[in-house]
Amino acid sequence: METGMTFRKPSTRVTAVLFALLTGIAAPTLRGADPAREPTPAEIDAIIHKFAAKESEFAKARENYTYRQTTKLIEIDEAGQQGGKYELVADVVFTDSGKRTERVVRAPVTSLQKIIMTPEDEQDLRNVLPFVLTLRDLDEYTVNYLGRQKVDEIGCYTFAVKPKQLDKSGKRYFEGEIWVDDQDFQIVKTYGRSTGYLKHKGQQFPKFETYREQIDGKYWFPTYTYADDVLNFDTGPQRIKEVIRYDNYKQFKSDVVIKYGDTVSGDQPSAPAPPKPPQPPPQR
Questions:
Q1: Residues with Cβ < 8 Å from 98, sequence gap 6 or more?
Q2: Pairing label, strands 220-233, 141-151
Q3: How far apart are CA 34 and CA 208, in angstroms?
């Protein structure tokens, strides 16, 4: 199948993610609001600006952290049995000169038979699945308030997010829903799919859920992404499952300018093994 890999429609959701205590401080006019009362249009605009500003802080702070990203993608046949598999374990680290780079720890030969990984999929793994909506990004998205909901007992404002238009340069975007903690004003969950202008038609992209967890007592970091969807190619449907874990966040303290470098592999020492992952989420 010459079509690129992209994922499926929603069929599961993660329920086993534990969140740390909230420590963010919101503006008094927002924090003191009655949780049962919906915000006014003016308050909604203030909430959007406030969480986008906090996301901008987080995006900058995350650039100073090393972490391990483990990606597993599995093809599922009509009988529900596992087929071909794609797996990649990589550490995002810094060189001695302070240059940010990606070091491959494990990359078995892919055994995928029905789908292939495309450059768009690689961009999504790096930038869209751990979606961050900064002040700079706001002009590119339409953000509509949906209401109040809870995520694992965390009070949240829920928004629908959609790109205003697709950049023909190939930039990838997120389309779906985000849950913003009503105390810290940071995204704690995203649910949707990646999108963008495609020069080559026929690709399919799945819906996914990404959960964040408070790592450093200040910011909420992506820790878990799960997808279980059916990709409806012209040649027929193909179900896939994908799990991505972001582990071992550690702050890198340096005054040097950080630049993202090329992928590095080889016999360099790997980072410590990640903690035991949570159990897979139950079927929806």
A1: 254, 256, 257, 258
A2: unpaired
A3: 32
**Above 90 in pLDDT, residue 140?**
yes
b vs e for 173-208, b when ≥16 Cβ sit within 10 Å of the residue's Cβ?
A: bbbbbbbbbbbbbbbbbbbbbbbbebeeeebbbbbb
Q: Which residue's structure tokens are 């026929």?
A: 202
Q: What pLDDT score was predicted for residue 219?
A: 95
**Nearest Cα residue to 163 out of 155, 172, 154:** 172
* pLDDT at site 97: 82
Q: Which residues of 78-107 are buried (b: 16+ CB within 10 A; e: fewer)?
A: eeeeeebbbebbbbbbbeeeeebbbbebee
Task: Characterise 217 by phi-psi region: left (phi > 0), alpha (psi -120 to 50), beta (else).
Answer: left
Q: pLDDT for 100-124, tens place per residue?
A: 899 999 999 999 999 988 999 999 9
d(C-alpha 180, C-alpha 184), whole Å = 8
Burial class (CB in 10 A: 0-12, 13-18, 19+), 245: buried
- Per domain, the residue ranges of the chain are 41-261
Contact by Cβ (8 Å): 100, 260? yes
Q: How far is residue 193's CA from residue 43's CA, in Å, rounded to a whole number? A: 28
For 47-90, how does the pLDDT look when each residue is reduced to its tens digit (9 = 90+)?
999 999 999 999 999 999 999 999 999 999 998 999 999 999 99
What distance in Å separates the CA atoms of residue 135 and residue 129, rounded to the nearest whole number? 18
Name the residue type at position 252.
F
Looking at the chain, the whole-number percentage of residues with pLDDT higher than 70 is: 76
Can you read off the two tokens belonging to residue 66? 């090393």
